Amino acid sequence: MDGNCLKVVAGKIVKKIPMTKNRGCEALTRKSIAYCGRPLGIRRRNEKQFIVADAVLGILAIDFEKETVETLLSITKPIDGIKMKFPDDFDFIDNDTIVFSDASTRYGYLDFLLSFLEHGGDGRIIKFKISTGETQVLVDGLDFPNGVQMHTDKQSFLFCESATAKIYRFYFAGTKKGRLEIFLDNLPGFPDNIRISSSGTSFYVAMFSHRNAENPDNFQRLGECLMTRKVLGMVNI
């Protein structure tokens, strides 16, 4: 939450890399997140470099040995004419190409709950080639796409759509190239991140809230209350 990425060895923090050199990031506040960074998805690219999806800065590269942070794709750069608002998670297609979720093009990290209230379908999945900076929107019209995980077939990937409690599968290669399928529907909670198991035969899905018909959470209760959702959005919960 303080805009740092940490290197942990044997349970101890041995290095802390801030996402920016901006002042005032030592004490975390709601305001400081906007300029200090909010790293979310992180994966190792090679021995020295990690790639990070930062919700307020964009796609970054971190070198823990050199203690450097490089902006690969700034959040201010338009993609298909629309700027990112919430880079969330990603995975590698290959060492030079990632697919990442832009959870919303209307609401950023500090206002993400408004995306759940609105269900505006303004999220998207984007392919990004690191060496050239080339981007391509693969899927749009999504309600808060979140965790991303490559499938073992190396022709498709899974991603969570948090606001609808679904997991989708998108084929970027092979005979089904370009096809989007529902992988799992009506999950018992709102899915956040997704990662493959060490065996490669199953997936771990983190859920940030439950879904239960007998004991619904607040988002379920608000589902049919359009006016209440509108009022909550106006007061910016």
UniProtKB/TrEMBL annotation:
One Pfam family per UniProt: Str_synth
Keyword Transferase applies: no
Record key words, sorted: Glycoprotein, Phosphoprotein
Keyword Secreted attributed: no
GO molecular function: hydrolase activity
Strictosidine synthase conserved region domain segment(s): 88-174
GO cellular component terms attached to this protein's record: endomembrane system
InterPro entries: 6-blade_b-propeller_TolB-like (IPR011042), Strictosidine_synth_cons-reg (IPR018119)
Family: Belongs to the strictosidine synthase family.
Name of the protein in question: Strictosidine synthase conserved region domain-containing protein
